[in-house]
Design a protein that fits this description.
Elements lengths: L4 H13 L2 H7 L4 H15 L4 E4 L2 E4 L1 H29 L3 E7 L1 H18 L3 E7 L5 H6 L5 E5 L7 E16 L9 E2 L1 H4 L4 E4 L4 H12 L6 E5 L2 H9 L5 E4 H4 L8 E6 L5 E9 L6 H12 L1 H9 L1
Helix pairs in contact: 1-2, 1-3, 1-4, 2-3
Length: 304
């Protein structure tokens, strides 16, 4: 049985992209070379790891097992590079973080940016996901750090209390709801909404919650960011469900009204998780602590 670390890296890239050409491009080799290397790897392991079909490359059961081991191997390699890098010129490495839209837009993204400026030899991948999928992604080694809203019953996670946030309704100042101090979502759903894009965890949460209470969601427009949503609401296009943390002081009360949601689920406790057994590289530990110690995050835990 003979193969190289570069073959395993190629396998990882193809598995993540579910596409041979895209995986080859990520590994900086041609598609023909990738096909040759993958065939040799499958021969060395004695089993097919992908099913080729018109939609791309799907992992076989054996491929799923190999993927878990390969992620663990490269996690160890990253940890080694990070630990050795401390003796050369400070922290070095690549960290992967996944979080829901509230955590990313309200707290984490700006904090990660400050961390990267302070540590120029560290790179990061940031991915948005729905909260309920994040613990499993961290357990599957698809991310080093996860931040999500709500509880989890999954074993094998080290859970840290991260931040507290609240979902609120924002309206134009002359809107029918603007005079209210609080409102239930069911009543707000009588009106047109400006929503985040259809893949956003914020929109998916709003859509699913509306379905649970048996009300249609009148999504008049999908915007690409919370800043765009707040601008559109201030212009009178519709109302929106947003985290209170993204409103902040961006718009004065002369342009927007912020209305408390009466539902208990509107108060969102955000948790930061890593794998319980994980020996995180020094750079990932540093980012985790930087996120937890951020003054804005700490203040939310005290005041919300």
């Amino acid at each position: 049985m003979r193969y190289e670390l570069t073959d395993l890296r190629l396998f990882l890239e193809i598995a993540q992209a579910r596409n041979l050409s895209a995986g080859a491009a990520a590994a900086h080799i041609t598609a023909s070379s990738a096909s040759y290397r993958l065939k040799n790897l499958e021969q060395a392991l004695g089993t097919a790891m992908f099913i080729r079909n018109p939609r791309g490359m799907e992992l076989t059961p054996a491929g799923e097992v190999v993927l878990a081991h390969v992620r663990e191997i490269f996690e160890g390699v990253e940890r080694m590079h990070g630990d050795v890098g401390r003796f050369i010129s400070g922290l070095k490495g690549h960290v992967r973080l996944t979080a829901n839209s509230s955590a990313l837009n309200g707290f984490a993204t700006a904090c990660i940016g400050r961390f990267l400026v302070l540590n120029p030899d560290i790179d990061a991948d940031i991915e948005e996901r729905q909260s309920e999928t994040i613990p499993a992604a961290v357990l599957a080694r698809e991310a080093d750090i996860g931040i999500f809203a709500g509880p989890t019953e999954m074993d094998g996670l080290q859970i840290h209390r991260y931040a507290l946030d609240r979902l609120v309704i924002v309206t134009p100042t002359d809107h029918h709801l603007a005079s209210l101090s609080e409102v239930r979502l069911g009543a707000a759903l009588d009106f047109d909404f400006v929503c985040m894009n259809r893949d956003s965890s914020n929109f998916l949460f709003l859509r699913d919650t509306a379905q649970k209470i048996g009300r249609p969601l009148r999504a008049r427009l999908h915007a690409h960011s919370f800043d765009a949503i707040l601008s559109l609401v201030s212009q009178g296009v519709g109302i929106a469900l947003v985290p209170q943390s993204v409103v902040g002081n961006r718009y004065p009360t002369t342009q927007l009204r912020v209305i408390t949601l009466a539902e208990t689920w509107a108060l969102r406790e955000l948790s930061l998780v890593v794998r319980d057994e994980a020996r995180l590289p020094s750079f990932a530990k540093a980012l985790m602590q930087f996120l937890l110690d951020d003054p804005l995050v700490a203040l939310s835990r005290e005041n919300t």
